[in-house]
Specification:
Blueprint: H1 2-9, E1 10-11, E2 19-22, H2 25-38, E3 41-46, E4 52-57, H3 65-73, H4 94-108, E5 109-115, E6 122-130, H5 133-144, E7 151-155, E8 165-170, H6 173-183, H7 190-201, H8 206-210, E9 241-243, E10 247-249, H9 254-268, H10 287-293
Antiparallel strand pairs: 1-2, 2-4, 3-4, 5-6, 6-8, 7-8, 9-10
Length: about 290
């Protein structure tokens, strides 16, 4: 909870006190309770009549548990434009990551509903903003770990913004529903989230698609682009990895090549009649290959 709030609306630069700034009393109260559970108290200051600053303090004690914890994670001393998600987070349990992302969305995230232009239907918008590009790329990778696709792009934040601002958008319906399933109800945005889910499920066939084990989607167009040079990329030992949070590379071994050959000959091969019956016999040296294919 503390880290989720700190990474979005927190401040812990070099030679600064660790503080959390917000206008929502529920967030501030939860933040204070969480700090007390770690042994750190909060000093409260009204910020020019617009929200509160909760500064982590242990009175005259030198030791500050929350600050020490942030330092151990490698977070303390980073200004917002250089903010990152600690590497250790990627090894956290699903439950811990879910709570972290939930509170990130409470801070700088949004769940918005808007009317479409020239249409009676409404559109759901889901995303989060940050002054740190790396932070959002890490969050994108963290979401992808749970099968949720998103995109990150630079936004024009206006002349008042000193630094470049970035936004992560979750656009596809299936990814939105997977996100809501991962994080649960976003704290402080519960009602808006319920409205968004209701709008999504009102779309035709959406409920059917997401209550089944397999999600079926239509291929809109297949175009022949000519012969292109391709590459087999692999890493040491595992032979597969995710690059740039969007390209999934798997070792192109014999099993995968065999799968492609089967699909090609069954469904694509030129001259094959649509009603032509056929039998495919697959022979492999290993049982695991057969299990993978089918």
């Amino acid at each position: 909870i503390i880290l989720g709030y700190f990474l979005t609306d927190g401040s812990f630069g070099v030679n600064q006190s660790a503080k959390f700034t917000n206008t929502t009393l529920a967030y501030l109260s939860e933040f204070e309770t969480s700090c007390l559970s770690l042994g750190s108290s909060c000093k409260k200051y009204l910020k020019n009549g617009n929200g509160w600053d909760y500064i982590i303090s242990n009175g005259h004690c030198v030791d500050n548990p929350v600050r020490n914890w942030l330092t151990s994670l490698g977070c303390f001393g980073l200004v917002k434009k250089n903010r990152v998600i600690p590497d250790s987070i990627f090894n956290w349990s699903k439950e811990a990551v879910s709570l972290l992302i939930n509170r990130m969305w409470s801070g700088d995230g949004w769940i918005e509903i808007a009317k479409r232009k020239n249409r009676a239907t409404k559109k759901v918008s889901l995303g989060i903003g940050s002054g740190s590009h790396k932070f959002l790329l890490q969050l994108q990778a963290l979401l992808l770990k749970f099968g949720i696709s998103s995109n990150v792009k630079s936004e024009n934040a206006g002349s008042a913004q000193k630094h470049e601002f970035w936004k992560l958008h979750i656009n596809k319906i299936k990814d939105m529903l997977m996100f809501f399933g991962l994080v649960g109800e976003v704290y402080g945005k519960e009602q808006k989230q319920r409205e968004a889910i209701a709008i999504i499920f009102n779309k035709s066939n959406t409920r059917y698609k997401f209550e089944n084990d397999i999600y079926w989607d239509y291929i809109q167009k297949i175009r022949f682009l000519g012969k292109k040079e391709v590459f087999d990329i692999e890493t040491f030992i595992n032979h597969n990895f995710i690059s740039n949070s969007s390209i999934i590379s798997h070792n192109c071994g014999k099993t995968e090549t065999l799968c492609i050959s089967i699909l090609y000959n069954m469904f694509v091969k030129p001259g094959k009649a649509k009603d032509e019956s056929f039998t495919v016999i697959v022979i492999t040296p290993y049982q695991s290959q057969i299990e993978l294919i089918f």
